[in-house]
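Recall that a protein's primary structure is simply its ordered list of amino acids. Everything else, from secondary elements to tertiary packing, is in principle encoded there. The following example makes that idea concrete.
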Amino acid sequence: MSVSGWTILCDFDGTISVEDVIDSLLDRFGRPGWEALEKSWRAGRIGSRECMAGQVALLEMTRTELDAHLRELWIDHAFPAFVAKARELNVPIRVVSDGLDYAIDHILGRYGLGDLPLAANHLMPALQPKHWQLTSPHRAVGCASGTCKCACVAEANRDGTKTLLIGDGASDFCAADRVDFVFAKHRLIEHCRAAGIPYMPITSFDDAIAYLPRLVDGSLLREQPVREAVAA
């Protein structure tokens, strides 16, 4: 068990990163057909793993072009300070993402955060030049996602540690139902509110820095019934 009794699982795209990495790549390097896959995923006809694998196969770019594009992408300005605060409080952090490991490593590395543990889809070159393929080393039986965040939660909880999820969207909904607390952005706020999941809304990691010490010392959890009653 961690010294603090907590472990953090943090989404990347739209949570740590300012924009969705795969969307930005498809807008710039995607060949026709990726929009149809996106519509099928949003309609529930295919899972995110099938959607992502198909979309990555439609990317046409050299590694040099990929790296240059990734250098243009940014993360939440307060995330490095949040990592420092978590380490000060002895709270381990793992990035859990349905995105691309190569992109996440590249972007976080620019901020000196390339050593953060990561679960994500694996991006690798295909045999044809300028083409790419996707594998999902963190998939799970019965889960349509490339990275099963619920399995990541189960792994984090094996030693009795409480789990904090930080996320923003649909890929975090299932895991949010299984953790002890959520720092939520965007669509995840509505999901937590509707499902009665203990959470705090955040707009940036500045908020998360303020809330984390109170989560670790237990005061944030004690405040939950009062906050939810007022919100109702």
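The two ends are 35 Å apart (CA to CA). Residues 226-232 have pLDDT under 50 and may be disordered.
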